[in-house]
Amino acid sequence: MADTVTVRPPTVRPPTVGSAADGRRRAQRRKRRLAVVFVLPALLLLGALVVYPVLFSFGRSLFDAEGDRFVGAANYAAIVQDPATLKAIRNSAIWVVVAPTLLTGLGLLLAVLTEKVRWATAFKLVLFLPMAVSFLAAGIIFRLAYEQDPDRGVLNAAAVAVHDGFDDAAAYPTARAREGHGLTGGAGGPYTTTSTVRPGGTVGLGFIGVAPDALPAGAKAAAGPADAAGTAGNPPAAGTAGAADAIGGVVYLDFAPGGTGTPGRVDPGEKGLPGMTVEAVRDGRVAATATTADDGSFRFAGLADGDYTVRLPAANFEAPYQGVNWLGPALVTPAIIGAYLWVWTGFSMVLIGAGLAAIPRDALEAARMDGATEGQIFRKITVPLLAPVLTVVFVTLVINVMKVFDLVWIIAPGPVQEEANVLATRMWLVSFGGGNDQGLGSALSMVLLLLVVPAMIFNVRRFRRSGA
């Protein structure tokens, strides 16, 4: 009988708890090593471009301008003692308060309005387009727009057009009286006759300094001795008797083509100066006023007997209105902030518009059903629900305005650069733009970093909370 062999299955021992935990730890270590391999290039780049410059700048801020002598906190103390730096800090504070507030409010307003208009997408596109323009290009655009000369600066061209629409410009800003020929007065007027004239007499008032091609289009040949009718608009010429109760005369350009003629006398080829305001003055009071005709003639009628002087007020010679001095010391910072608003309004509007689109419409409709007005809905529902988005937009803009450099450097002219400086431009000027004090410049860079970092941390925490 054959022997029976019993085959038993192999015994499988369950893994111990310790060995499983070791395996998990080894897997986690492998993942961490792999993560380090992928992150290492970014860490090296971050260290080279951010960490090292920050540490080097901090160390450099503790030395003098040449970097040879340790001065400790002396550079930081110099910051609060330098008037130009304090002005830059003041301007930076204005930027931080004004620009983000205006941009956030303007973006909110535009985002709400675009929901209620047709072609909202096209409107948003137009407002967002400046974001595609670099600060360098935007600075050049606004530097030209803010030019004082109305022939070059579009803003002043518009301002002059509006001003001249309500207030006529002076006709002859460059005119001046020919010396020694019957008129006295300084440049820009007023001009007064050196001798008096009685009713029935006439005066001739010659001026120079007006280019023939600058005369009004309707200017005619100056009234001469033959024009002695003594009527309004055609009075007696100089030296010609007129009506017993009237004084006549002519205001003319005392210069004939080719330089011929006699100074102080109306000669052939000389033209009258139309549109001049002329006054008859007696005992310090204006007795009559007239305006010169196209041939320069004028006439005062109905005068009482006595001695009069003839005066041409300064309004005839005022310099033309040249618009607003946008880039002067008083307005340069608001003007640059205006350029910044032009660039960043689209950014603010688009971000707030995205938050507005995420608001539940049920809440808005329920409020309308309860009889709430649009203003109440905006104040009590829309704005509170948008508060997180508004905060992120505001803080992001604060970070950006703290670092603004390009617009200030490009738009502000050299003579008022100090009035427009912010911390970033002041730091560059102190370090490289002629100051050559990299110790103080490094201290300014550390101050700027300390001001920016809290806002950045706040923004990062906001993003993490919203992601959670």
| CATH level-four homologous superfamily name of the largest domain | MetI-like
- Profile the largest sheet: 5 strands, antiparallel
Question: CATH topology of the largest domain, what is it called?
Answer: MetI-like fold
* Number of distinct helices: 13
Proportion of helical residues: 40-55%
Q: Largest sheet, order of strands side by side?
A: 2-3-9-6-7
Runs in which pLDDT lies below 50 for 5 or more consecutive residues are 228-241
| CATH C-level class of the largest domain | Mainly Alpha
**Nearest-integer average pLDDT:** 83
Rg measurement, Å: 40 Å
Tell me the count of domains.
2
Q: Which series of helices and strands comes N to C?
A: HHHHHHEEEEEEEEEHHHHHHH
Taken as a percent bin, the fraction of beta residues is 5-15%
- Which structural class matches the secondary elements? alpha+beta
Termini separation (Å)? Answer: 78 Å
Structural notes for this entry:
The chain is built from 13 helices and nine strands. The chain has 468 residues and is of the alpha+beta class. The chain folds into two domains: 79-159 and 326-467, MetI-like fold (Orthogonal Bundle), CATH 1.10.3720.10; 176-317, no CATH class. The two termini are 78 Å apart. 30% of the residues are buried. The model is unreliable at 228-241 (pLDDT under 50). Its main location: membrane. It is a multi-pass membrane protein.
